[in-house]
Specification:
Blueprint: E1 10-14, E2 20-25, H1 26-32, E3 36-44, E4 50-55, E5 66-67, E6 70-73, H2 80-92, E7 101-112, E8 115-128, E9 140-146, H3 148-155, H4 162-176
Parallel strand pairs: 3-8
Antiparallel strand pairs: 1-2, 3-6, 4-5, 4-9, 7-8
C-alpha cells in the first residue's frame, strides 16, 4: 500500500485568528486559497552559518526557488512544535535534532496576479544543527551553509520564496526589537 502524496495530506483550515474551521487535502487548500498553518525553521550549523537551499522543481508551491528556512505545512491535528521538529528532521535528513525554539507567529498573505493570493499562519523557529545533513532529494535540489553576510548578498542575486522572505524580514525586525514594516515584502530576484 502506498502512502498518500503531498497533495492528499490533510490540513487543518484556519481563520484569521488561527482557529481551526475545517479540514481539506493540501492540494485543495492550495487550489482554493484556504488558510492553513506552516512552520518555518531557520537552521544554523555549529559555526552559526544559516542553512540555505533551492527547492526542487516538483514542489507544489514555489518550485525551484531559494529558501533560508526549512519547514512546511502543519498536518491536521498536529501542533506547530511537532511540525517544526518533524519538518526540520525530514528536510535536513537528520535524527536527534533538538526541538526548534519558537520565536514568533505571523499571518502570511501573498499575492496572485495582482490580487489576493495564498494565506497561511506561519510560526518561525530557530535551531542549531550540529549533525551532518543529508537533505531529502525530493525537497532540496541544492544546499549550503552561508554566513549572515553571504545570505544578505544572495538576497539581491537569487530568486527567493516570497513567504520565506517575509519571515526573514520579520525575523530581522524581531531580533532588532522592532516591528516589521507594514505591507508585503517584494519578491527579490
Amino acid at each position: 500500500m502506498t502512502s498518500p502524496g503531498p497533495a492528499e495530506e490533510i490540513l487543518d483550515i484556519v481563520d484569521e485568528h488561527d482557529e481551526v474551521v475545517g479540514q481539506a487535502p493540501r492540494g485543495e487548500a492550495y487550489a482554493r486559497g484556504l488558510r492553513h498553518r506552516c512552520a518555518f525553521i531557520l537552521v544554523r550549523d555549529a559555526a552559526g552559518r544559516v542553512f540555505v537551499h533551492r527547492r526542487t522543481a516538483t514542489k507544489l508551491v514555489f518550485p525551484s526557488l531559494h529558501d533560508m528556512f526549512v519547514g512546511g505545512v502543519v498536518g491536521a491535528g498536529e501542533s506547530y512544535d511537532e511540525a517544526a521538529l518533524r519538518e526540520a528532521q525530514e528536510e535536513l535528513g537528520v535524527r536527534g535534532l533538538p526541538p526548534p525554539a519558537p520565536l514568533f507567529k505571523f499571518l502570511y498573505e501573498g499575492e496572485s496576479d495582482g490580487g489576493p493570493g495564498p494565506s497561511w499562519w506561519s510560526y518561525v523557529y530557530e535551531v542549531r544543527c550540529k549533525l551532518p545533513v543529508d537533505p531529502q532529494k525530493e525537497e532540496v535540489a541544492w544546499h549550503g551553509f552561508l554566513t549572515e553576510a553571504e545570505l544578505e548578498a544572495r538576497l539581491r542575486e537569487w530568486e527567493w520564496v516570497p513567504d520565506g522572505l517575509a519571515a526573514y524580514e520579520r525575523l530581522k525586525a524581531h531580533r532588532a526589537g522592532r516591528r516589521p514594516a507594514p505591507g508585503r515584502p517584494q519578491r527579490r530576484r
